[in-house]
């Protein structure tokens, strides 16, 4: 099912996307401290020895991860050699006293697993698909990954499965992997591992480091992880149930206490002149720090995707300040009056104004849009202004960003790097693949389509949204089919017409019945033949050598999960199963040391990197698990899932928790009306006079 890309793929001429995302500034890294408990200690020693021989290793620089120099000072190397000698001596003594031998059987079992546990990959399987069995396969992959991390890098923020060691991002560590993975452990009912993680959080996790950390990543992963652990452990006590701990308290108190402590430290990031959070914050001083690059501007997605976490914490603690600082960010952004609901990917914390005109739903843009519709759903649809903003953005996406490939008419959600009225770039970061699922979620609120159709609010717009979601889902699936490993590249370009065919053009074609009915109402052609390396459809996918890495990202699986739940079409589960098998085939590391990122997903054998992302455990495997779970498991209508796949409840706003802002009044074109020309409306809320811009696009679609 995987193939080499044809060699005649046209070279794309636009400038290479720089690694603009390696900007985590965690100075004075280090802290490779050995763990103190016996089991991990032995393996920690192993990791130190590995470290001695791995000087000069480089790890990827990109948005989600810290950047750091690959050069280490010579003195450090010499100290390590000395340490290596000491370590060998200790190892010998441990062997002599029998401590090490006690662990031998565990290791033997694990390395056996690494080579034989995937024998099911070869099975074509029975006609009837056993989804429960497939879900178990995902759980096994998770256990293998987690146990390897526990064995080789326990407590570390990073895990390098090939060199079998770990590393802290800041001194003392952030709990990066443990906290991020905790709620997946709970969902999978892995009780003893939850117990171990909780003990570590209780005894070793502190958020007082005198370091700058990325405001967004710390919020979505750490704050989100702790809040989700609180929600799952209190609402689903039968999942990974824990006994009372030493202090007689149930484990769940721990999570909310840690979450509140962390949130209080993060609050300093919001203390800018505009209320837009700074890119980084020092956890010890709670002082916000502006970005080193990008003229000091924050990424828009990062600044504007902290609301689900802070609002849920406000609900739990009854503390309105968490709520107010988070929602103010959206007001400041909206006051910019961006055209058609689409915004540039940088915003200044100092002024609240945008920087540049680059508009995209990939890195630095993505979760701003995601959090609009999810904020609306989080508070049980009581805040319609977020729906309004989402609908506006969706109309803008249809108008400015959607185009189609030349041969297969695949739907592409492109970029406008120089503003909405300049050229369209037919490029999709894999990150954009969260959109099909999120669009479907927005259309039905999480209900299955069949249910949602019974509602009085269901109409043509929702139908069109589901259709768009299906088409984009297919485009993302094709990104996996297009590579040698069956795993998507980080970035894909597409072959499109010149000038690009836009949605209005396509609508006219549809009216002419050019594509109607080709695929049950969808507009693109089938990605067939699937196993022919020179198939026409493949030429629509363009993968550049600088983009062919795979970072174990979750977005496509995430969308498959939503699409399966919402449409009920089992095809999405089958696609997910193919992707899961590709991960197992091409990213598993020898000796049962887990799974790793790929430097090149478009070659066989795949070129491996030495890094397991924390979102492999927090998101990718969780979404696989949910995709193969029964529909009733974690009903979508009751929950909202943050951008790091942490699960929160939907809730009602009460008391001090209410929408504390109003949108500025806009004219028929969506432009903000200046104060002195403001036409007072009866309600005076500025929202009721504006035309629903989505209607305009709908008319265009109907020709
Ligand atoms: C995750 O940290 C989050 O999903 C974020 O919104 C985008 N990047 C990664 C996964 O790719």
Helices, strands, pairings?
Layout: H1 38-52, H2 74-97, H3 104-116, H4 131-153, E1 158-160, E2 165-167, H5 176-187, H6 191-204, E3 212-214, H7 215-235, H8 252-266, E4 280-282, E5 287-289, E6 298-299, H9 300-303, H10 307-317, H11 320-334, E7 346-347, E8 354-355, H12 366-378, H13 384-401, E9 402-404, E10 411-413, E11 427-429, H14 435-444, H15 449-452, H16 460-481, E12 491-494, H17 503-511, E13 541-542, H18 555-567, H19 571-587, E14 598-600, E15 607-608, H20 614-627, E16 639-641, E17 647-649, H21 693-701
Antiparallel strand pairs: 1-2, 3-4, 4-5, 6-7, 7-8, 9-10, 11-12, 12-13, 14-15, 16-17
This protein binds 1-deoxymannojirimycin.
Bound molecules: 1-deoxymannojirimycin
CA-atom Rg in angstroms: 25 Å
Structural shape: globular
Beta strand %: 5-15%
Number of strands: 17
Stretches where pLDDT is under 50 for at least 5 consecutive residues are 1-78, 97-115, 515-521, 682-703
Largest beta sheet, briefly? 3 strands, antiparallel
Helix content: 40-55%
Number of helices: 21
Decide which structural class fits the backbone.
Answer: mainly alpha
Give the mean pLDDT.
83
Distance between the termini: 39 Å
Strand order of the largest sheet: 3-4-5
Describe, in plain words, how this protein is organized in 3D:
The chain has 703 residues and is mainly α. Helices cover 42% and strands 7% of the residues. α4 (131-153) runs antiparallel to α20 (614-627) and α5 runs parallel beside α7. The two termini are 39 Å apart. Mean pLDDT is 83; it is low at 1-78, 97-115, 515-521 and 682-703. 1-deoxymannojirimycin binds at residues 64, 367, 431, 553-554, 615, 619, 643-644.
């Amino acid at each position: 099912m995987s193939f080499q890309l044809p060699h005649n793929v046209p070279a794309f001429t636009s400038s290479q996307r720089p690694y603009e995302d390696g900007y985590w500034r965690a100075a004075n890294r280090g802290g490779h401290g050995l763990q103190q408990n016996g089991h991990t200690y032995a393996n920690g020693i192993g990791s130190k020895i590995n470290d001695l021989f791995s000087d000069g290793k480089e790890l990827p620089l990109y948005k989600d991860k810290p950047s750091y120099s690959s050069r280490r000072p010579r003195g450090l190397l010499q100290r390590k050699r000395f340490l290596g000698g000491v370590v060998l001596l200790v190892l010998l003594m441990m062997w002599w006293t029998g401590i090490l031998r006690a662990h031998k059987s565990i290791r033997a079992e694990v390395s056996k697993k690494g080579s034989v546990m995937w024998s099911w990959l070869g099975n074509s399987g029975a006609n009837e698909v056993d989804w429960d069995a497939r879900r178990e396969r995902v759980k096994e992959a998770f256990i293998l990954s987690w146990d390897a991390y526990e064995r080789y890098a326990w407590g570390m923020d990073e895990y390098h499965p090939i060199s079998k060691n770990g590393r802290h991002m800041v001194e003392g560590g952030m709990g990066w992997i443990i906290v991020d993975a905790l709620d997946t452990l709970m969902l999978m009912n892995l009780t003893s591992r939850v117990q171990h993680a909780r003990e570590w959080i209780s005894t070793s996790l502190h958020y007082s480091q005198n370091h700058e950390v990325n405001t967004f990543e710390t919020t979505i992963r750490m704050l989100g992880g702790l809040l989700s652990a609180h929600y799952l452990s209190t609402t689903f006590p039968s999942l990974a149930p824990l006994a009372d701990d030493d202090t007689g308290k149930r484990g769940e108190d721990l999570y909310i206490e840690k979450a509140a402590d962390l949130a209080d430290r993060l609050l300093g990031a919001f203390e800018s002149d505009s209320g837009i959070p700074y890119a980084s914050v020092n956890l010890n001083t709670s002082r916000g720090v502006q970005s080193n690059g990008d003229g000091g501007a924050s990424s828009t997605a990062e600044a504007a995707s902290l609301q689900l976490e802070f609002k849920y914490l406000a609900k739990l603690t009854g503390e309105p300040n968490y709520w107010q600082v988070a929602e103010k960010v959206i007001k400041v952004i909206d006051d910019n009056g961006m055209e058609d609901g689409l915004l540039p990917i940088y915003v200044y914390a100092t002024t609240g104004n945008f920087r540049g005109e680059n508009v995209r739903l990939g890195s630095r843009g993505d979760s701003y849009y995601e959090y609009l519709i999810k904020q609306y759903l989080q508070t049980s649809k009581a805040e319609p202004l977020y729906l309004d903003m989402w609908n506006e953005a969706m109309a803008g996406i249809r108008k400015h960003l959607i185009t189609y490939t030349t041969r297969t008419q695949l739907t592409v959600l492109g970029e406008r790097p120089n503003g909405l009225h300049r050229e369209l770039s037919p490029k999709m970061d894999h990150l954009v693949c969260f959109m099909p699922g999120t669009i479907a979620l927005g259309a039905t609120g999480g209900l299955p389509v069949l249910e949602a159709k019974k509602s009085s609010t269901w109409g043509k717009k929702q139908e069109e949204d589901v259709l768009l979601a299906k088409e984009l889902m297919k485009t993302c699936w094709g990104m996996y089919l297009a590579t040698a490993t069956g795993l998507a590249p980080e970035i894909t370009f597409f072959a499109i017409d010149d000038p690009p065919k836009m949605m209005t053009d396509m609508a006219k074609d549809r009216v002419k019945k050019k594509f109607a009915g080709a695929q049950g109402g969808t507009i693109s052609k089938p990605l067939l033949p699937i196993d022919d390396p020179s198939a026409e459809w493949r030429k629509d996918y363009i993968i550049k050598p600088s983009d062919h890495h795979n970072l174990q990202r979750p977005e496509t699986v995430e969308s498959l999960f939503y699409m399966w739940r919402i449409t009920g079409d089992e095809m999405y589960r089958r696609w997910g199963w193919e992707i899961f098998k590709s991960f197992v085939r091409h990213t598993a590391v020898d000796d049962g040391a887990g799974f790793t990122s790929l430097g090149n997903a478009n070659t066989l054998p795949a070129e491996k990197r030495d890094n397991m992302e924390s979102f492999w455990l927090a998101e990718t495997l969780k979404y696989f698990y949910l995709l193969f779970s029964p529909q009733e498991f974690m009903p979508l209508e009751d929950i909202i899932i943050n951008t790091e796949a942490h699960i929160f409840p939907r809730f009602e706003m009460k008391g001090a928790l209410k929408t504390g802002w109003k949108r500025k009044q806009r004219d028929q074109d969506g432009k903000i009306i200046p104060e002195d020309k403001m036409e007072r409306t009866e309600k005076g809320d500025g929202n009721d006079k504006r035309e629903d811009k989505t209607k305009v696009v709908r008319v265009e679609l109907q020709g």
